[in-house]
Specification:
19% strand, single chain, 5 helices, alpha/beta, 6 strands, binds adenosine-5-diphosphoribose
Length: 171
């Protein structure tokens, strides 16, 4: 089942929350900053042992002080107009995160709108990519949550869900 939630992803008590990180995995602003603040300094310390993460890939860490058991950090593409493979890289972020979740027995997972903040990815195109991959993987999870930070973002995801996989949208 896919749920659209409006709120702060750091509050979600799920098996894993996904972080829109940068390639150092050592924290930043936006949702990255919120997750590191809520997880505590142990998250950065742990991530220092991971040696960074290329764009499109994902790495897993414990959730530490978060209600979520794990953090899956993925590095989204910076939007440069769309002719540098940004859409394929964003799709890879969702796939890499889902595959890593499956490999770690994760049954409930929440995603922020990766790359749509500081990295400037157009929100409509990003939502279409996110929902496409979520619809594909949802049958293999108990819960897939699109955690939006504004009602406008949530409405955008609801529209995409209705268009792409109405049968998977939680009522
Ligand atoms: N919970 C859920 N979503 C959030 C939260 C939160 N607490 N805070 C921000 N968001 C949303 C933003 O509104 C946006 O829709 O997360 C989405 C992604 O925005 P950013 O956090 O700016 O991430 P991104 O665009 O992928 O840029 C990543 O920003 O913070 C730095 O270190 C990070 O360099 C990396 C870059």
């Amino acid at each position: 089942m896919i749920e659209v939630h409006t709120g702060d992803i750091t509050k979600l008590a799920v098996d894993a929350i996904v972080n829109a990180a940068n390639s150092t995995l050592l924290g930043g602003g936006g949702v990255d900053g919120a997750i590191h603040r809520a997880a505590g300094p142990e998250l950065r310390k742990y991530n220092e042992t991971l040696g960074g993460c290329p764009t499109g890939e994902a790495r897993i860490s414990p959730g530490f002080r978060l209600p979520a058991r794990h953090v899956i950090s993925t590095v989204g593409p910076v939007w440069h107009g769309g002719d540098r493979g940004e859409e394929a890289l964003l799709e890879r972020c969702y796939r890499s995160s889902f595959e890593l979740a499956l490999a770690n027995g994760i049954r409930s997972i929440a995603f922020p709108a990766i790359s749509t903040g500081v990295y400037g990815f157009p929100k409509d195109r990003a939502a279409a990519i996110a929902v496409k991959v979520m619809c594909e993987y949802a049958p293999r999870f108990e819960r897939v949550i699109a955690c939006c930070f504004s009602p406008e973002d949530a409405a955008r995801y609801e529209r995409e869900l209705a268009r792409r996989c109405p049968d998977r949208a939680a009522g």
